[in-house]
Amino acid sequence: MAELSVSALRDGLASTGYLASDALVTALLLAVRMGQPILLEGEPGVGKTEAARALASTLDTVLIRLQCYEGLASAEALYEWNYPRQLLAIRLAEARGETLRDADLFSDDYLLPRPLLAAISHPGPRPAVLLIDEVDRADDEFEAFLLELLADAAVTIPELGTRRAVVPPVVVLTSNRTRDLHDALKRRCLYHWIAYPETERVAAIIRRRVPDAAGWLADRVAVAVHRLRDRPLTKPPGVAEAINWANALHVLGASTLDALAIESTLGAVLKYPEDIERAHAEGLAALTDA
């Protein structure tokens, strides 16, 4: 990865349909070249998860994703033992009059890797991209558990000892900032805030992601989404919603983005009834120049 440049990475991301700002491209490049985890924060729908997907595609490597949630335990993220197979081995040994030791049952033959161990164990030659998605949804205990992985590219399995990565993964963490992450975690990471992109970039992204849509559609949707964000909504629409909205309008064969077209597709861009009511109250026609 030493030969990877900002321009090459930008072009590679663009080839996957992901149009990144220069600042984001630089941050991702540093994560790859320095071998340091990167924490991407931003509002939901601005493209944090897609950045990791596009990075893996650009590097021509595997993406291993861990979706975080409240109550996620380290064992669920790291590994599990194949208990049915262990039980079968015990029964076979008893039938043969043999005695199995713990070391016989707790070995790699019975180990089921979960995302973290799979990323550490990835043989290369290119590093896997490990996406730890929405880390802010996990508990403090799980966040603390991640520190060994982020600091040393290693994890500890009590029965087998410490496993260190031969080819350390490129680690991308994402957060919607539903809670503040601890300083110890942030210290181990590069950091980048992904803001809502400007209208022109949203339009360009829509053209990439909905290539069969009419030429006018991307510009109109980008403007309308920008105007929606200026309203006091519970969940302002992000890039993902803009793409979804443009695709919905394309599927319906909309010939213009007028109040009627917006009314029929508003559920593709707004996901709370309060936001839909507010959009109606403030006028749908004001969202477009049509």
Walk me through this protein's architecture.
By secondary structure, the chain is α/β, with parallel strands linked by helices. It folds into two domains: 160 residues, 3-Layer(aba) Sandwich (Rossmann fold), CATH 3.40.50.300; 82 residues. Helix content is 48%, strand content 13%. The protein is built from 14 helices and nine strands. A five-stranded parallel beta sheet has the order 2-5-8-1-9, with helices on both faces. A two-stranded antiparallel ribbon has the order 3-4. A two-stranded antiparallel ribbon has the order 6-7. Helix 1 crosses helix 3, helix 10 packs across helix 12 and helix 11 crosses helix 12. It is elongated and about 80 Å long. The protein starts with 5 loop residues before the first helix and ends in an 8-residue tail after the last helix.
User: In DSSP terms, counting alpha (H) and pi (I) runs of 4 or more, how many helices?
Assistant: 14
Q: N-to-C terminal Cα separation, in Å?
A: 48 Å
What helical percentage do the residues reach?
40-55%
CATH superfamily of the largest domain: P-loop containing nucleotide triphosphate hydrolases
Radius of gyration: 23 Å
Main sheet? 5 strands, parallel
Lateral strand order in the biggest sheet = 2-5-8-1-9
Q: At the third CATH level, what is the topology name of the largest domain?
A: Rossmann fold
